[in-house]
Amino acid sequence: MINSISYKIYYMSCNLEHVLHNKLENLTDDEKKELANQFADKFYEKEYEFVKFINNSDFKVLGNYEDTWDFIKKI
Q1: Is position 8 within any domain?
Q2: For the chain, how many structural domains are there in total?
Q3: Does a structural domain hold residue 65?
Q4: Partner of 13 at 20 to 30 A CA spacing, among 26, 30, 35, 57?
Q5: CA–CA separation, 62 vs 64, rounded Å?
């Protein structure tokens, strides 16, 4: 819970760079950290923009938990 809002987080390390940065190559740990920091900086204290980004139809997959993980597995 954050500010009385229930949420869950799922971590997908092997696809993070692909989903957030459209990078498919193998990256070093430092490169991955840099990309993660860039993403965090982009949305720092910009919750509305983050929610808008995460709900973008180009990014968001509709369905329940199982449907969305099935989609990920097919990529």
Answers
A1: no
A2: 1
A3: yes
A4: 57
A5: 7
Alpha-carbon span 28 to 48, nearest angstrom: 31
Contacts of 31 (CB under 8 A, 6+ apart): none
| Backbone φ and ψ of 5, nearest 5° | -105, 125
The Cβ of residue 44 has, within 10 Å, a number of other Cβ atoms equal to 9
- The most confident of the ranges 10-19, 31-40, 53-62 is 31-40
- Does a structural domain hold residue 37? yes
Q: Is the pTM above the cut of 0.90?
A: no
CB 39 within 8 A of CB 54: no
Domain extent for 47: 16-74
CA distance to 12, 29, 53, per residue, from 47 (Å): 21, 27, 10
